[in-house]
Specification:
alpha/beta, about 35% helix, binds magnesium ion, 7 strands, Rossmann fold, binds guanosine-5'-triphosphate, globular
Length: about 190
């Protein structure tokens, strides 16, 4: 299945303020600056999600309508140090409501920076998703920055860390080279079929 049309149909900062559920929905979560918006653009094959060198750009939940049938949802990033306590609390409320009440959510793609070991807040996300029984897949981002000679070691190490939590699919990706993009799209369209 191909992505034919993409439209940003809803930007929300209010818990519960979502568009009507459709045939399928997946969401993209991860630390600020991990590359969520860039990966979405690559999946969509167009520059529609806002990308910046400064972290903390996506503060809202952004719903992208794909092929008039499905949503790909860009979640606000976590772990950005320069965010106030009030904003952190708001983030938690917003994402918590989405995770707990959005019954049409089928899978979360948890983006983790492939260049560095998973951080404490990444592992907290894993715990949280497990607790909520939301199926998730781990996407290692920015793999173009991992030296080919380190690649095997990096992949083995990441696998070892996440295996402590359960059996999860881990897909290495890059918004630059397009690595992993077809795998992610295949997985999504298998879910939506
Ligand atoms: N080398 C490399 N850089 C990337 C990749 N993906 C994203 N970046 C860069 O990382 C920075 C952050 O990318 P975004 O896509 O805005 O990250 P985000 O997760 O949406 O960030 P927030 O919206 O702040 O949560 C930008 O400078 C991107 O160009 C990648 O696959 N490879
Ligand atoms: Mg973003």
């Amino acid at each position: 299945m191909l992505i034919r049309t993409v439209e940003l149909v809803k930007v929300t900062t209010q818990p519960g303020d979502y568009p009507p559920p459709l045939k399928g929905e997946v969401a993209f979560a991860g630390r600020s600056n991990v590359g969520k918006s860039s990966l979405l653009n690559r999946l969509f094959n167009r520059k529609i999600a806002y990308v910046s060198k400064n972290p903390g750009k996506t503060r809202s939940i952004n719903f992208y309508l794909v092929n008039s049938e499905f949503y790909f949802v860009d979640l606000p990033g976590y772990g950005y140090a320069k965010v106030s306590k009030a904003e952190r609390i708001h983030w938690k409320k917003l994402v918590e409501d989405y995770f707990e009440n959005r019954w049409s959510l089928q899978m979360v793609f948890l983006l983790v920076d492939g260049r560095i070991p998973p951080q404490e807040n990444d592992l907290m996300m894993v715990e949280w998703l497990k607790e909520l029984r939301i199926p998730f897949t781990i996407l290692l981002t920015k793999m173009d920055k991992v030296k080919p000679s380190d690649r095997k070691k990096v992949l083995d190490e990441r696998k070892r860390v996440f295996e402590e939590y359960g059996e999860y699919t881990i897909i290495p990706t890059s918004a630059i080279t397009g690595e992993g993009i077809d795998k992610v799209l295949d997985l999504i369209f298998t879910l939506f079929r």
